[in-house]
Design a protein that fits this description.
Length: about 300
């Protein structure tokens, strides 16, 4: 049942109690951090709502009228209940802010998340964080199932029940061992890449989905030829270095190997291998607390 419009708001009731306790509208205004004219306006508003004077002004200050004393007696329980409610909400917020569960695709978890975590810990040193790493499909399920408060994916395909927002950009690259014919400095065309069996991540991987979409935009009837399928980026890099076959991986994941010459990345022409890395959370919900802070950190320019 909705309250009557005659019921004053908590700020007015709290001010009335302070005036009675302190004996002065000016001292009550100072205690509440407002000007005396604002306090007078708030008391007038209260009197208009209840329809009777609640204070009488004297040369010594202000005191409650008989009606004001009665309203103050009723209001005290209301204000104390509101204070208990405020304290309870504060406890819930502290519990929310003390722990965050995150789900992230392997590329994000291994190559971006550690830097984000350091920045988040600077803001919230007492916070406990749990990270679940998987492919983009598994990340989406973790967020939808409530196992994670926020997720980070590299797949262009995201369930419609999730909000999705860009936080970073990445580029896929073809990698081969130094002795491979593609390592000789010649550009690699999309058609030759399409004819070549590759080492792939498992189904549901954002890297695989992004690459397959890029290929079918250029060659609509293309079908992948899989020489080996692995669920670990590290295992794929090892297999490529051992000569099992070429692979397509995130530039973030192979930066070290390209720098030390363990792997080589030929230039690819006729194929757009750029992709977006995105944060996801349930549609219709707002990010709060550490999840909101992590999202803002992830979206900051490097």
């Amino acid at each position: 049942m909705p309250l009557s419009p005659r019921v004053p708001d908590l700020a007015a009731l709290e001010l009335l109690l302070s005036v009675i306790e302190l004996g002065s509208l000016g001292r009550a205004a100072k205690a509440h951090g407002i000007s005396q004219p604002s306090a007078s306006s708030r008391i007038r508003y209260l009197e208009q709502l209840v329809g009777v004077p609640v204070l009488e002004r004297t040369t010594l200050g202000s005191r409650a009228t008989a009606a004001g004393a009665l309203i103050a007696e009723w209001a005290r329980d209301v204000v104390e209940a509101a204070a208990r409610l405020d304290a309870g909400i504060g406890t819930l917020r502290e519990q929310r802010d003390s722990r965050l569960r995150v789900a992230a695709s392997q590329t994000v978890a291994e190559y971006l998340f550690p830097k984000w975590l350091m920045a988040l810990r600077t803001r919230m040193p007492e916070m406990s964080l749990a990270l679940e790493s998987g492919n983009s499909a598994e990340v989406a399920r973790a967020v939808l199932d409530g196992r994670a408060g926020i997720g980070f994916v590299e797949s262009p395909v995201v369930p419609g029940e999730l909000e999705t927002h860009l936080v970073a950009r990445d580029r896929l690259v073809v990698v081969v061992p130094p002795g491979h014919r593609w390592a000789r400095g010649c550009a690699l065309g999309a058609e030759e890449l399409a004819r070549t069996p590759l080492i792939y991540r498992e189904l549901g991987s954002g890297t695989r989905i992004s690459f397959e979409r890029a290929m079918t935009r250029v060659i609509p009837d293309w079908q992948p030829s899989v020489v080996l399928e692995l669920s670990s980026t590290t295992a794929i890099k090892t297999a490529v270095a051992e000569g099992v076959g070429p692979a397509v991986l995130s530039s973030l994941a192979v930066a070290g190997e390209l720098a030390d010459g363990t792997l080589v990345s030929p230039e690819v022409t006729g194929l757009d291998l750029n992709r977006d890395l995105r944060a996801v959370w349930p549609k219709g919900q707002r990010l709060t607390g550490p999840a909101r802070d992590l999202y803002s950190i992830a979206g900051r320019p490097a």
